[in-house]
Batch of 2 targets.
Target 1
Amino acid sequence: MSENYPFSRILVYLDGSEGSMSASMYAVLLARSTGASLHALYCINTKALGDLVKAHIFVSQEKAEYLEDLNKDARRHIRHIEKLAQSKNVTVRGEIVEGSPSAEVSRYIKANGIDLLVLGPVNMIRSRREELTSENDRMLRTASCPVLVCRDDEKLWQMFEET
Amino acid sequence: MGLIDIIRKDLIIVPLKSSKKEDIIDDLVSLYCEKNNLDETRKAEIVKAVLDRELIASTAMDKGIAIPHAKIPGLKDSAVVIGISRLPVDFGGAEKSNIFFLLLASQDKPTEHIQILSSIAKLCTSDLFVRMLSASKSADEVYQLFFD
């Protein structure tokens, strides 16, 4: 643990959404002001891809095409957070994994001693249907460490520019 | 954004009146274009993208569900248009389809596209949900099913 803070290893989860970009900015600022190390994880959801093929919604050719798109998206977002971190003199360890996002985040937290997970916004509760639960919601419920949810995109972007 | 964030009551057709695959796709895309003020040229591009995907293999699944979908260049936000037909239609699958989810996906957000399709697929594993969708008599009833 850092001397004055209850966490020393921050993980931010990236999924390509604007919300996860805001979370990245917040995580970079948090790492800079607390001295905590920063990790960034993008999980390519191969579990969902496999399920879509099994359900005959995707054909194999389409699965391969999406895998390529997702890999490009993952690399783009890891590069993006590296640039954000660099601009604030913070080092980030970025990693791309494949599988079920909530399970992979849980695994990463345990394997790397993460003690704070930073997420983009979670859904408002508009449906009780479990099938409509987002990956961020699942992570919020299943993470074995404290979770920080970033909400106000515009304010965060402004804070990042000004800090 | 997940499925729940993009479902709109004004993008649901109950009942669909067409009885051919191409016409159903046209009806669903037309509604999307009408609600988003898109012109005929754009509509033709979207219809072509969806039909091109159907040419590779039909997106008809079991339980009478079909999920035509395509990545649309220049689309900012993903959208779903839902249609329920009273009579099952030959959509190219092993069985006929009467529930249609048209997903138009932003090219720049593959993770979102996968997540939305995955939510639709998971919802449709519930026999009760599918029966209730099939029996819905209005867009209101369909919309409400997702927000129970």
Target 2
Amino acid sequence: MKARVLHAHLHLLDRQVVRGDGRLLCKVDDLEIDDGYVTAILSGPLALGPRVGGVIGRVMTGVTRLFRMEEHPAPQRIPMGSVAEIGSAIKVGDLPEASLERWVRDHVIDRLPGSGGGEPDTPDPRPVRLTEIPDRERLSSLVARRVVDVVGEPVGQVADVQLTQDGPLLADNGQALRLSGLIVVPRHTGQLFGYERGPGGSSPALVRAVIRRLHRGSVFVAWDQIATLGDPVELAVPAARLLPLHELLQR
Amino acid sequence: MKKFFAVTLGILTAIGGFVDIGDLVANALVGSRFGMSLAWVVVVGVVGICLFAEMAGRVAAVSGRPVFDLVRERLGPRAGLLNLGASFGINLLTLAAEIGGAALALELATGIDYLLWVPGVGLVAWLVMWRVKFETMERVFGLAGLALVVFLVAFFALGPDWGELSHQLVHNPSDDGAAAYWFYAIALLGAAMTPYEVFFFSSGGVEERWTRRDLNVMRANVFVGFPLGGLLSIAIAGCAATVFLPRMIEVDSLGQMVLPAGLAFGQIGLALVIFGVFAATFGATLETALSSGYSISQYFGWQWGKYVRPREAARFHAVLLVSTMVAIALILTTINPITVTEYSLVFSAAALPLTYLPVLMIANDPDYMGEKVNGRFSNTLGTAYMILLLVVAVAAVPLMLLTKAGR
């Protein structure tokens, strides 16, 4: 069976995480990567803030840090082993809800008449947290890095990361997602929206044409064409050897 | 038979729920100043809302994902947050306007100043959101809003000069200049296509647990209910064009807007129309307040909705509570609710593309939609509307400044 290929931005990031009992849990705010594999979904303001960036992003993380007791607070972490399905929502097993939800329930909602609250809650387990997850272990840190080819010529910047589901087995939920390639755009022209790659099918032709035009010259870099994954990302091959993105679609 | 009943009920709810303070104010103002010469904008707006509400409803039924999930997923966290900020702000303005409208209707009915009614309206609205089941809530206020059909009947009963009205369809009777004309065109489009309508419509689909089997019922509601609601809007403009335009009266209060029904049917007409205005604005109060909760919860991935108990969607209900209080406070500053409505319409128009572009994109994504992706017709029309909405978004705020908000 051919391994499933996903694009992190297009298929995984910013999707809704839903628990086994149908309860909405959080968003995929970022992904934790370790040694070339996706190891966990990160969520909460500490994962979202750095991606939003700017003043608002800093306020988001700053305020959260202020109210958290740990010395080095980290985003909530959902190990990939508990992911049951990746679709229009990400289905996971039974996991504890975010602490803010519980705080608001205990201190605001349950105190209002008719909330259906009042019965003593069994204390839920707290969400899994580690100490601070450094930037280099977040997938979002790869995005927007500059890419240069073997002779130092600029190729563009990373727009998305291709993931292939052919890693080692995780618990009983299939195989791990391996980082298998980068999608590199020549200039910063906004979101990719998925129009420059598969699956094809129907689409508003004009919107697709405009977005493809904005991103013309985009290329695909296979993982083994990367020499060093620093900033900038240095490639082991000249730019001419890279696969144009629209051919990735046709393969 | 049961199915027929459900479809009819849904359509009636859609008609009653279509008109809110924005439609009411924009159409009455436009009718009194420009006659029927902007009726075409209502038609354009209704076609647009049908098109995008159908897409949003289809995505919700097939994938279970409401509109703001799509906004966040397709636009990413930054542009999504920008959209959230804009939509949430506009929503609060609209919520304040709706609360003000409901309070003004109560003032017309009782003679007691509307400011005294505002806290009560807000409190009752919150209680309804807190305790009443989603379906009951939607049905009751949608059906009560049908009382506004009195505008349609009054329009015919007033015996308008049909020749003059149809002449106005293609010829602008006002001498206010092109800028004011286009400013009101944008406000009317904003009124018909307000983004909160698709937030509410698609989230409501998830609340009522639509599946693929409900697609046809959903389409019937959209394609029959919304156009009939649009017809009601045109009738409001027609009444104003018949009563106020020939006398050169510019409408600037809710009391004037309901007058045509009184002229046609006396006290009974007036009572009915005031009841209808109250039901429509109160129903829209609930819709906008819920939409503010829906949009913020869906952006951050919180549990939302009335299909779980309030304590299971704690952050969502906290947002409802806070936004209702802020809107009440805004109206209690004695700011004119009609002015708030006009501004909310223009800002809505400016924010339209940010919401409708992701809907158009996801409705084409087989990942979400399987074989239920858009057809060629929806895509062609959708693209045409995207261009139109971009033009409108760019023009809205400059036109507002240029015309001093249409004065």
